[in-house]
Design goal:
Blueprint lengths: L4 H6 L5 H15 L3 E4 H10 L11 E7 L3 H13 L2 E3 L5 E4 L4 E8 L7 E3 L6 E3 L3 H5 L3 E5 L2 E5 L2 H14 L7 H15 L1 H7 L11 H17 L3 H14 L7 H10 L3 H15 L3
Parallel strand pairs: 2-5
Antiparallel strand pairs: 1-2, 3-4, 4-5, 6-7, 8-9
Length: 278
């Protein structure tokens, strides 16, 4: 499905086309595989199903597969020549022309124990999950270009990891995860009916509970590839699935949707149940 110029506007990301075209050109010149991740990727996947973004952002996140920090520094020079200059974290670049910040997160051979160490100020970047999730990236046409993005279950895994690394800075991750759960039943209705009918209770169907469990089943694919990733995700969930009153994730969702915390807790539990499905 091609995404029209009108859809660019519906993304609610100012200058998305200009920034994406610029990054695409640079990555092709450097022969670097790249992926669109984060809220922009979620927005594109949902727009495929005519679901408009719930929030706007000036941040556009990319993951790139490279082999060394030297390769990253060469790429940084090219970004600088296009007006994208480093600010704050060494993986963040800002364009004054587009008033847009982009994160360029490296992974692949450059990693050591799921971490990339930058020469600038000896800052480490944790990239756990990128390799496992992006092995199954899906292509989405954007006019004449292609954006490779994580599947929705993979986005949940990446969001959980990112949130757990810096919860004080990642206030949008948990609402973004819930947004995926809220729409997943309708998006994958045919597949859920055909292959996951056993998630349906005998009494009334709760679409969010079903969607969360199916998403957990699909996310298990990534966890099975990495013991470290599996331990991290299960630790996050176990920490939030002890007492309902102490579940931070459930509390955030309950406040967001004006739910009882018990209901938000049950959705999170359903996702965990999916991960445990053999």
């Amino acid at each position: 499905m091609s995404i029209s110029k009108q859809t660019y506007k519906e993304l609610a990301i100012p200058y998305f086309k200009e920034v994406f075209d610029c990054i695409d050109e640079i990555m092709i010149n450097h022969k670097i595989p790249y992926y669109l991740i984060g809220v922009s990727a979620i927005a594109l996947e949902l727009l495929k199903n005519n679901i408009k973004p719930s929030r706007g952002t000036k941040d556009i996140d990319f993951a790139i597969m490279i082999s060394s920090i030297e390769e990253y520094e060469e790429l940084s020079k090219s970004l600088g020549e296009k007006g994208f200059n480093k600010v704050d974290a060494p993986w963040t670049f800002y364009s004054a022309e587009y008033n847009a910040a982009i994160d360029i997160l490296p992974f692949g051979q450059i990693e050591e124990q799921n971490t990339v160490q930058f020469n600038d100020r000896n800052i480490d970047l944790h990239v756990l999950g990128l390799k496992e999730v992006l092995e199954q990236a899906i292509p989405i046409p954007i006019e004449e270009k292609i954006a490779n993005i994580p599947p929705l279950p993979g986005m949940i895994v990446l969001k959980l990891v990112a949130w757990s690394d810096r919860p004080e800075e990642r206030g949008n991750d948990l609402p973004d995860i819930l947004r995926i759960i809220e729409h997943y039943f309708d998006i994958e209705y045919d597949e859920i009916i055909e292959f996951h009918y056993d998630t349906f209770p005998e009494d009334e169907i709760d679409q969010l509970i079903v969607a969360a469990e199916v998403l957990g089943r699909k996310a298990k694919i990534y966890l099975d590839k990495s013991e470290i990733l599996s331990k991290r995700i299960h630790h996050i969930l176990d920490t939030n699935l002890g007492k309902e009153s102490e579940s931070y994730i459930s509390r955030v969702w309950a406040i967001q949707k004006n739910w009882e915390i018990e209901y938000a807790f049950s959705i999170l539990q359903a996702f965990k149940n999916g991960l445990l499905k053999e």
